[in-house]
Hints:
The complex is a heterodimer of chains A (145) and B (674). Chain A is mainly alpha-helical and 145 residues long. Helices cover 84% and strands 0% of the residues of chain A. Chain A has helices at 2-13, 15-24, 26-34, 41-63, 68-75, 78-128, 136-144. In chain A, helix 2 (15-24) packs antiparallel against helix 4 and helix 3 runs antiparallel to helix 4. Chain B contains 28 helices and twelve strands. In chain B, helix 9 runs antiparallel to helix 13 (364-376), helix 12 runs antiparallel to helix 13 (364-376) and helix 19 (483-493) crosses helix 23 (556-565). Chain B is elongated, with a radius of gyration of 39 Å. At the A-B interface, helix 4 and helix 6 of A face helix 27 and helix 28 of B.
Amino acid sequence: MPVLLLLLPACIVFMPTMxxxxxxxxxxxVAYIVDRDPEKTAPITVGSLNFxxxxxxxxxxxxxxxTMANATKALGKPVPWLVMYGAxxxxxxxxxxxxxxxxxxxxxxxxRRITKEVERQRELREEWGPEVAxxxxxxxxxxxx
Amino acid sequence: xxxxxxxxxxxxxxxxxxxYDILPDMPLPALNGPGGPAYAVRGIRxxxxxxxxxxxxxxxxxxxxxxxxxxxxEHPAMMRLLDFGVVDWTPDGSRRLVLILEKPGGKQLMxxxxxxxxxxxxxxxxxxxxxxxxxxxxxxxxxGIVHGDVRxxxxxIRENGGxxxxxxxxxxxxxxxxxPIMILTIERxxxxxxxxxxxxxxxxxxxxxxxxLILLLGRNPVKQLDDDQVLQAKVDRGxxxxxxxxxxxxISLMEPLRGLLSDDPKQRWTLNDLDLxxxxxxxxxxxxxxxxxxxxxxxxxxxxxxxxxxxxxxxxRNPSAxxxxxxxxxxxxxxxxxxxxxxxxxxxxxxxTTAAAAGRAGSHEERLVGRVGMALDPAAPIRYKxxxxxxxxxxGALADAMIRGESPQALAEIIAAQxxxxxxNVQPEFRPEHVxxxxxxxxxxxxxxRPGSGFGIERVLYELNPMLxxxxxxxxxxxxxxxxxxxxxxxxxxxxxDRSREPLDRHIAAFLAAxxxxxxxxxxxxxxxxxxxxxxxxxxxxxxxxxxxxxxAELPHLCAWMVELIEPAFERFHNRTQRSRLKAEAEKAAHxxxxxxxxRLIDDPKAIRKDESGxxxxxxxxxxxxxxxxxxxxxxxxxxxxxxxxxxxxxAVMSSVLATALxxxxxxxxxxxx
Lengths: 145, 674
């Protein structure tokens, strides 16, 4: 209750900024809702950039007067929408673009390590004979080759 | 090869130590000895006397133990042994022992015992035969040598046309190997040729007595009898009556002849007695000793036997018939009631009791009859399974049998059944020389019972014949007397394409064990039956030990042979680099001919341990890599899921970092503008 009593005046004072943030951060809210991952990485990814896009106009609002008129004026233009929602879109692009890149990188790293380890095994067989692998059948095949 | 006549192969003279040239193209059949044929010899330095060579053909083992001593004997009545040695005998490409002997100028006194010659007058016999031969026997006796081959056919006329005689050689074969039965004492006549033992000077004196009698009569007095009949006559009547019979012998000669032909070695004339007689002292002639005769005969095999000795002989010939009679107590009753010899009956009783207890070798009846035979006739040879050997003749008999390819089984059973020990026990009096006999045969029995390579009957053969060359089939054509010779011979064998797989067989192992006292006997056990690597390693150990102790320093062919065999030993090393290095080093060592270096290469415990631990580590590493690779493969397979989770986290982080950076830039720009 004391918190509400403090927030209520704050909301009345920052109503124009609140309006801008609430409208501008809608993509983040959507991301939060659609992301089933408990870690909620989608709202974080989208929200971070979305927040930057909103903050550009929030700062502008604070510089030119934190009034409802200025807030509605900003929301009445297409560019702020484009910047705020474009930033969110970049966030979504990262959210969908980075995992395949990471996957490819991981696979490449694993393949490289496999090649290196197999090479090490070949060296061991050369140095200690096929019996180092502990498989007599494989030993015979190796000897034949 | 010398200039060969058409169709005839001629050989170059064969040199012995650069001192004598043996002429293989000039055989001298009249001088052939028991050990081999005779050939003419040209002395390079020794030109004063005529020489000939006896080339031992490995049929009968020569008396290696007395060769050095005989070389020192210089007596006018003895054929001199000037030298001996081993040569490459080109006619058959083998290595042979050659004896260089003084060649008599005249013929044999009697080419054969079947021949007849003019009876030798008494004074001539004394002057030309008894006097010089007594002196010659004194000479040999003083050097501890028993001649063993005194007989008329081994007497030669020294100079052509002269009268002086010389006694022929006695070294090319076993003692008394070719001695006719009539010339041998009863005991040694009962033994087989190879098993007569070395004998004593008393045996030489007996032979001298028979020789004198034959020369005196000018003929063999028992020519009409075969060997068995001669022996039986000696057993039944005593030697002098059996041989001299009704022949006329003067009183003066009767004295030495009776003395020399006495069947009791204690009664027999000694060299001193003969010397005294030759110097003119006259004694009353000895009466022949009549063996104890039973009141009633013991009937066996359809014959009546009155004496123990004859009965013992008959038993030995038919043990299967004798054993039941002995077991039924008939012999005991005859000994006590008819012969009245309770003491002998007790000894026979002891023989019966101990026959059952002494070992499991052979059949009970053979052991029983063998022991009873010794109890009945203690001076006789050991008789067992138709073998008959003097107690000191077992080694010779064994060598003779094995050289001729006969089975040594019966002789081995004699040792296993402890018959020599029983022989010592039944002797009427204990003599100091019996102690080493007992000790030796006890040791041989334990050797015989050990089955592995380096033991058994082959080892007994070389233990009982300390100077016998190695008779391994692998060394055919070689003459191997020492471990040094053996290694050299094996180096030679290694060059043959048809060599056996390994350079060690039972004979070689036994020979080395007997001649190298410091050899580790545990290694011998591994040379047969063990897994190949351990076997080859053991063989290499033995041979390298012998090379280190006895030489020669370089054995390149044998080393190359061993390097081939130790291939599996290299396989023990897992590390391929180590293997290649070892093989290269082994080949280098083989080239240098040093077995010890090769042995050290494969028998380096530190290197083996290091290799084992390195291999174990490599195996663990290999398995770890397997696990890791599997893990990586799993990662690759589960890439989609992993990349989704991780990628989103990365995207979140990147987005956050980017947003923070942008925010800072915006704030800074705003502040700057303001």
